[in-house]
Prior knowledge:
Elements: H1 3-18, H2 23-31, H3 37-44, E1 51-53, E2 76-83, E3 86-93, H4 104-120, E4 124-128, H5 139-155, E5 161-165, E6 168-170, H6 175-179, E7 182-186, E8 191-193, H7 197-204, H8 210-214, H9 216-223, E9 228-230, H10 233-246, H11 285-292, E10 299-301, E11 309-316, E12 319-326, H12 337-352, E13 357-363, H13 370-374, H14 377-390, E14 395-404, H15 405-410, E15 420-423, E16 428-430, H16 434-448, H17 452-470, H18 474-478, E17 484-485, H19 491-502
Parallel strand pairs: 3-4, 4-5, 5-7, 6-8, 7-9, 12-13, 13-14, 14-15, 14-16, 15-17
Antiparallel strand pairs: 1-2, 2-3, 10-11, 11-12
The structure holds hexanoyl-coenzyme A.
Hexanoyl-coenzyme A binds next to helix 5 and strand 6.
Amino acid sequence: xxxxxxxxxxxxxxxxxxxxxxxxxxxxxxxxxxxxxxxxxxxxxxxxxxxxxxxxxxxxxxxxxxxxxxxxxxxxxxxxxxxxxxxxxxxxxxxxxxxxxxxxxxxxxxxxxxxxxxxxxxxxxxxxxxxxxxxxxxxxxxxxxxxxxxxxxxxxxxxxxxxxxxxxxxxxxxxxxxxxxxxxxxxxxxxxxxxxxxxxxxxxxxxxxxxxxxxxxxxxxxxxxxxxxxxxxxxxxxxxxxxxxxxxxxxxxxxxxxxxxxxxxxxxxxxxxxxxxxxxxxxxxxxxxxxxxxxxxxxxxxxxxxxxxxxxxxxxxxxxxxxxxxxxxxxxxxxxxxxxxxxxxxxxxxxxxxxxxxxxxxxxxxxxxxxxxxxxxxxxxxxxxxxxxxxxxxxxxxxxxxxxxxxxxxxxxxxxxxxxxxxxxxxxxxxxxxxxxxxxxxxxxxxxxxxxxxxxxxxxxxxxxxxxxxxxxxxxxxxxxxxxxxxxxxxxxxxxxxxxxxxxxxxxxxxxxxxxxxx
Length: 519
Ligand code: HXC
């Protein structure tokens, strides 16, 4: 074949590969409101940056007449490209080829890009749209999944891994996304479950729709499996770019920096009066976050799950930082099982990838009751304490208002190696709130008082005495547990200066095989 003919053959083969399972199946994909694998990749990456690999790979299965049906690329599009000029490795399952089902060769393609990402230290982004293990391949397909899972595990904490769910993701297939750092889902066509509605019906006799069982709404509100939910695929792909902009390429890199256009010494007088005088009245912690972050921007993780705690990425003077903050607007900002797990995972992500942590505290304690105890609040709360205590990144804590009991300790207190622990003048740092404390300490004395007016006057007097002693930051500051009491309007500047000072922090944990976090 002459050169020209050879080049033409290449061009023809590429065109054939780009058609995946054929135009009819592409049309069917579009008719469901879904993009094809290559359309998704191209929309997510910088223009013209995608370099596709293994376009000519075909499956090797000869069962059930499969040798008669092969497609170039075999059900997954893989390669690398850039997001804002930074390298990322990608794979996108192609539903037009055997429903994106996972074959031995498809696994090999995915593993190849994962291995390359580990070698060069770059994030892996997987777009999932698949009918699960390729049924015709049996154990080969299962082994293929296992190869991917093992790589997900070894890559965890080395390079960021993000999973986008743009179609079915069922059975054991869910475990690759579950092993990654972030899962994103769209409101339509995106679902994840261990077993589908038919199996559920036969085993538990429940009637449940696909969306109820594993849709984006369920996973972002109830199970917490999904970290982000968007209306459309396009929005999700853009959100992936935003997420990538906050995180380093790998565990050896420092956080990404952008130019800061917001004055670092910007004061906000509103903060001086944002906390209501009545300690039982809520306020929106997000207003504080908006006020102190560069340009008021933040990217919230799991915004609809355990809303009593906020986990988000912000920038301070252009540098990415993770914020964990109690939200008094929801359940008074109490710590429960879900909030503890959510925050613990976020703290560990930040620590793994050198992202400094700011903690904003307004916590009345752990949520009491059988519901929480039966659900294991003891171990879930311990997860958060463990995560904070082992984290070696710069940690700045600001007590905004309440900080009581075990929850005070868990929320990045000084003794869990908090680097700089500040408090607002409104802070109340104590074992418990005034009324609870007076009940315990004065219960017997109170019971003896028969006259109702005298009783309430006595209680008030004792509560005032307790508040004067503990419902302020100065008792803790007198011991050095609080490094300084700061004026609220000056918080942005104090936080930025704290993190600048801590940017050269060096701290390592004792050598060990790995820890035994209370899972
Ligand atoms: C081979 C598959 C397939 C699979 C779908 N296809 N799933 N081929 N193996 N697992 C093929 C179909 O035959 C069809 O081929 C094409 O993909 C599109 O499928 P449709 O059924 O026409 O599409 P749709 O109606 O949208 O339904 C999608 C679906 C359904 C809900 C995913 O296909 C389905 O239920 N598939 C089986 C799901 C499943 O049980 N998988 C195994 C899960 S267990 P043509 O030629 O018509 O285009 C598992 C274990 C993993 O994955 C363990 C890991 C440890």
